[in-house]
What does this fold into?
Amino acid sequence: MTFNNDCKVLKLRAAPGGNMTMTRDTSLSIKSAEKIIKSRAFKKLSPLERSLLLKGHWRGNYCYNSHKTPFLWGQTLTFPCPCPRKAMTEPELKRIRQHLENIVGERNPFTQPKHLENTAQYISGQFEAMGLKVTREMVEYEGTQSQNILAQIPGDSDDLFVLAAHYDSVPNTPGADDNASAVAALLEVAHTLSQTSHQKSLIISAFTLEEYGFIGAKHFIDHDPERKKRISGMISLEMVGFKNPQPNSQSYPPYVDPSQYPDTGDFIAVVGNEPSAGLAQALAQKMALSTPALKVETLVVPGQGENFSEVRLSDHSPFWDAGIPAVMITDTAFFRNPNYHQPSDTLETLDLEFIRDNALAVTAFLKQFLNNTG
Ligand SMILES: [Zn+2]
It folds into this structure.
């Protein structure tokens, strides 16, 4: 099964004797549908591809709702994509662009404390405009002061989940991908989730001082022992805005077998350690199913992840160290993006639709996950 470039057509290459074609002219009986499921081509699909095919489109649109599709053996079976990529809506584009325009620019406690503070103000203003209760935690570091900005979405149970992105940058970079992209995605997720109620409580966190060793995230974990006991898991959004569609644009750390992963840098990665393997798998699967335009890859490192320095480079790692399941969602940073920590990490290099897709996918996961208390 292959997707064409604009993800509008799904082709199922079939058994010997040629391919199969589906058009909308005559009817497809349940019997024919069963024949597809029994076909060798269908059996070759991965479970994910099968469920995309069945749940996403075929069952709803062709098989059971409209019995108006012929099924001609010997040609190419062509389905519309199960969920065609949703174009960016005007409001989505406007919001994401506005977030980026307000945030991109050096945000550093030593070299640009003013823009670091302005960004904190912008983020808390956005949360408040969504009707969310905002808490600010002051974090002191080597004579500087900056803040974690925390928005609460209370649930019915004590269980507390954390969705986070850091908003600081290293000196001498506008920090567009690292990490304005993720803050924009964080605000998009908050925008949707603020309008619904959930079983589990969620804290949406914009952390400060990630770039100095996850200082803001560590402060968050250690600052409130009662809160720490309630935290059941965490997602860190770490650079979610850069894609490169060229072959060989993606590299990997030495402990990752590149033959198992794409060489094109156009996917999003979900990274976990052993205690968070279940969370990583569930998250990746929901992201892929809910947003088929998104290519999702998963990496789970052994143990607590102590020996894998590159995959520790975000705010999830202090959660790993505290024994809390945590995953990072990332475009893989310097394994793909040549602008990492450079003056060239600018807004113009970002793919806004990729940011939107990542936000939609995380939102879809959290909507389900926060209500699943089993
Ligand atoms: Zn970062």
In short: Residues 1-30, 54-83 have pLDDT under 50 and may be disordered.
